[in-house]
Amino acid sequence: xxxxxxxxxxxxxxxxxxxxxxxxxxxxxxxxxxxxxxxxxxxxxxxxxxxxxxxxxxxxxxxxxxxxxxxxxxxxxxxxxxxxxxxxxxxxxxxxxxxxxxxxxxxxxxx
Amino acid sequence: xxxxxxxxxxxxxxxxxxxxxxxxxxxxxxxxxxxxxxxxxxxxxxxxxxxxxxxxxxxxxxxxxxxxxxxxxxxxxxxxxxxxxxxxxxxxxxxxxxxxxxxxxxxxxxxxxx
Lengths: 111, 114
Prior knowledge:
The complex is a heterodimer.
Chain A: E1 4-5, E2 11-14, E3 19-25, E4 30-38, E5 45-50, E6 54-58, E7 61-66, E8 71-76, E9 85-93, E10 100-101, E11 105-110
Parallel strand pairs in A: 2-11
Antiparallel strand pairs in A: 1-3, 3-8, 4-5, 4-9, 6-7, 7-8, 9-10, 9-11
Chain B: E1 4-7, E2 10-13, E3 19-25, E4 31-37, E5 43-51, E6 54-57, E7 64-66, E8 76-78, E9 87-94, E10 104-105, E11 109-113
Parallel strand pairs in B: 2-11
Antiparallel strand pairs in B: 1-3, 3-8, 4-5, 4-9, 5-6, 7-8, 9-10, 9-11
């Protein structure tokens, strides 16, 4: 059974701080990793994906992947109240096009 | 505009009724998926389809049925056999075999059993 684990939170950070969201996965054959943001009552929207070990930056967002330790993280710099949402981690194994989703981490950015 | 549309946005079902949720995409994606999301839960895969006229059961297919007669369309029927259908239903699509098989989601349908 492929598992993707996320702390459900809520993670509360002050406006302007760095929010760090973590995700661990069980399948060592995993090759593709995705972060989605889901506002309450809305559908998930893709923030970014990462395939290679290391960091990938896109604006205020940085995804970090460590395949040896089987974790992927999302850093949000200069957090804004509009970043308050649930963040879903999704992991896809090599040869599969079906991702496994974590349950998500709730992020609250307070002014 | 390219994207995925789902209708209706809200749907109410009486006990014993079958209801059909619509999902259409104009992204020319090969694969389409249906997920169910319950409060505080992750996404659970109901059915998926990689090509027209072919589909596979996901983790929680019991009480649901689908069809894939056109590449653009993947409707989901929630049958009376589904005992607890109240949930948020999400349709997604993706390219298969490309550089990225990223899933993109429609806006969702919220189904409530009366």
